[in-house]
Specification:
It contains 16 helices and 12 strands. The protein is an alpha/beta fold.
């Protein structure tokens, strides 16, 4: 039915409430009208190009390629609950992960370095505690979330806005290959479907529909991530947001979500408080408070660098160290990923 022009998710869902998929294409015109189909859709059913259907079935013959209809036991219960669930899911990879507890992580395609680090660390910690990390394979926060899960257990699901015979954006082909090793790629679009702007809101409803909770790391006030978060709220999912400075445009979306009822999150413990019933034991050794490995002088200076731009003059004043020593320590801290430089001889702490 997915290959029938004009037949969308709502029409298919209503049809499946009345009959089996196999019966549709052998039914009479009178019966199809009785099921509430328009003349245009009936004509499309009668003129269906079966070669496209055959291509989809051939695609599914490949190893770890799956077509999962709404009636399949592998179809996620969470996703069935949403308005107009996809009638079919195309899956590449480990299909069993569809049934596992999932947390979605989304955010800006153009995040700050701090946002990327935050998304990756949250994904790594959540994955290590048994959650599958779900995101949209987009640039920025999505990619960092997938990578964080790969750093931990590899259990991550990428929901695509194209057919699964292609990767969008193309620069994420290597990331998609990594995901396939231990996770899965999912789409409601059949093979051969290219990227279109209208596909991504549809993809977003699947991301939010699959998860128990959704975490927004960074988002501008008008962004696709906020749309996904509001879909999650409509779907009765838990929504979490990481707050930020009122001066940071990338924090305004998260701050707005918090005002609207999303839970303010500072650590993974804030998420476990809401989803504790699904919390599992760590799948690997995870020390949430690892030692920095820095010497005392380096650690003391790190503690002076704030999570907002901090000037070198401030560090000289507070530490009592010379500019030469401070510059040397700052270089070490930056190379180890603890801080990041900013214009105007400023630094910002990342972790």
């Amino acid at each position: 039915m997915l290959r029938t022009p004009g037949m969308g998710s709502k029409t298919i869902s209503k049809l499946l409430e009345q009959t089996e998929p196999e019966a549709v294409y052998s039914a009479s015109q009178a019966q199809l009208k009785k099921w509430g189909l328009s003349d245009k859709i009936i004509a499309a059913i009668k003129a269906l190009d079966w070669t496209q259907v055959e291509k989809d079935l051939t695609w599914a013959d490949h190893d770890r390629h799956h077509i999962v209809p709404l009636t399949s036991p592998f179809y996620p219960e969470q996703l069935k609950q949403i308005d107009s669930p996809p009638p079919l899911l195309f899956v590449r990879g480990h299909i069993d992960l569809l049934m596992q507890p999932q947390i979605a992580i989304v955010g800006s395609r153009n995040p700050s370095q701090q946002g990327l680090q935050t998304a990756r660390e949250f994904a790594k910690n959540l994955a290590a505690y048994g959650f599958v990390i779900t995101s949209g394979l987009a640039l920025g926060i999505d990619a960092a979330a997938h990578q964080g899960a790969l750093d931990a257990t590899g259990r991550t699901l990428a929901v695509a806005g194209t057919g699964l015979d292609r990767v969008y954006p193309a620069r994420h082909k290597h990331l998609a290959t990594q995901i396939l090793e231990h996770g899965a790629l999912i789409s409601e679009f059949p093979p051969g479907t290219s990227a279109k702007a209208s596909h991504f809101p549809r993809r977003n409803r699947i991301i939010s529909g699959l998860c128990l909770g959704l975490l927004v790391v960074e988002a501008a006030k008008q962004s696709g991530s906020l749309i996904t978060a509001r879909l999650a709220l409509e779907q009765n999912r838990e929504v979490f947001a990481i707050p930020g400075s009122i001066h940071n445009p990338l924090a305004r979306g998260c701050n707005a979500l918090i005002r609207e009822g999303a839970k303010l999150v500072e650590t993974t413990d804030d998420i476990f408080e809401e989803l504790g019933e699904y919390n599992q034991q760590p799948t690997q050794d995870t020390d949430k408070k690892t030692k920095t490995g820095l010497d005392p002088e380096q650690e003391n200076l790190l503690n002076l660098v704030q999570f907002s731009p901090t000037t070198v003059d401030y560090l000289i004043e507070k530490s009592g160290l010379s500019i030469e020593i401070i510059s040397s320590i700052l270089l070490v801290l930056e190379l180890q990923g603890y801080i990041d430089s900013r214009p105007g001889s400023c630094y910002i702490r990342l972790k």
